[in-house]
Amino acid sequence: MEQQDEDGNYVLNPIEDGDMDSLFALPLHLIPIQTPALRQARLIKNVRLQSVVEVFQHSETGSGQLDIEDLPNFFEWEEGAAHPDMELLRALAPLPSYDVYSLRILLRRIGISVDQTELKLSAEKNAELAEYMTQFTRPLIIQIYGDDDMNIQSFEDVVGLFRDPDVKKAREKLKRMADKLEIELEEVPRFLEDYGDIFLSLSYYRQSLDRITPILSDFLNSLDELKKNYQIKNDRNMMQTFQMIENTINQLTAGISGRFENFDRSTQDMWSNLSADRFRNVRKLIESYHTTIGGVLCGLTVKMNAWARRFPKKDVGGPMKRAEFIMSEMKQGIQNIQKIEDSAPMLSQL
Fold first, then answer.
1. Domain coordinates in residue numbering, the chain
2. N or C: lower Cβ tally within 10 Å for the chain?
3. Residue 85, CA distances (Å) to 61, 79, 181, 207 in order
4. Would you state the pLDDT for residue 57?
């Protein structure tokens, strides 16, 4: 993200979210960890996209990180690497993203049982995403109520009908919704819950892409400038690496944007003839890409955060400093992000 300093110069700011809203941090209190000190820690993706245990983090002192394989010695476990917490952490380490929507799927897949009700965004993040959610709530409101009911303005207003003191009025409108969906009246609350959750996930991922876009633009512009530098231009290895990184980032962002466009088309088709089956198909489509989109955005966010912290302004770091950072840190693990993208299911298979 970009802001301006007191002199009017643009400053890059890293993306920072609370634990439940983060793509790249997993608070270990959510996992059945036995070691008390570990339950206070987080599993995070470092700049090289390796999963490490973060035991403390502060703006002044930095981040205290431990390699997972070093934990038996650090905590002096009698069982050593056979400690149950090691099994959990080794299973969690390869996960491509730690956002709540990916975790709902991935934790079940690897057989780690958690309280699924805890895997949700914070109230603050929900408020942030209100603008993004509008494009999904307005079609619902118009489809069911038309344009004449000015009291229904948000998804919360629809849900609020269940608390409407005018029971008859609420029942009539909810029955109209049920008829449109071809479901029983008592099934409407579950539909609303599912509808809100699936499109909240899409809003979350869209905001995540929007937030890193300014940093991505700055990074790609820096790559272009570096490739024109005389010293770098004559270094074949650097030039090939820079081109690989640029191509990878462009392909990844184009892939995510293309999926968002496909989701939009599917959602519009759903509203052209609304039914429970059509909604289930759209939900299945979006959920099938949660781990792919989450993994790609997690990797890109970690990389762009590292860039923003190291080079927050245009005048920070000369060409060789920037080139060295790209070669030593930015390129490490970036091809793993491409593997996440390449492993995504084909639309024709869904």
1. 1-20+121-350, 25-96
2. C
3. 27, 10, 46, 34
4. 78
Average pLDDT over residues 268-274: 89
By residue count, the chain amounts to 350
Return the closest-CA partner of residue 100 out of 41, 13, 17, 1.
17
In the prediction, which pLDDT does 180 show? 83
pLDDT tens-digit series, residues 116-133: 999 999 999 999 999 999
CA separation for the pair 138, 159 (Å, rounded):
14
At 25, give phi and psi (nearest 5°): -135, 130
Q: Are 27 and 42 in contact (CB under 8 A)?
A: yes
Token pair for residue 184?
């029983």
Cβ distance 160 to 249 under 8 Å?
Answer: no
Q: Residue 193 and residue 117: Cα distance in Å, rounded?
A: 13
Q: Look at the block and give the residue holding tokens 């462009």.
A: 250
Q: What percent of the chain has pLDDT over 70?
A: 90
Residues in CB range of 215: below 8 A, 6 or more apart: 1, 2, 12, 304, 305, 307, 308
CA distance 51 to 261: 31
Residue 25's beta-bridge partner residues?
Answer: 44
Residue range 35-78, pLDDT digits in tens = 999 999 999 999 999 999 998 877 667 788 999 999 999 999 99
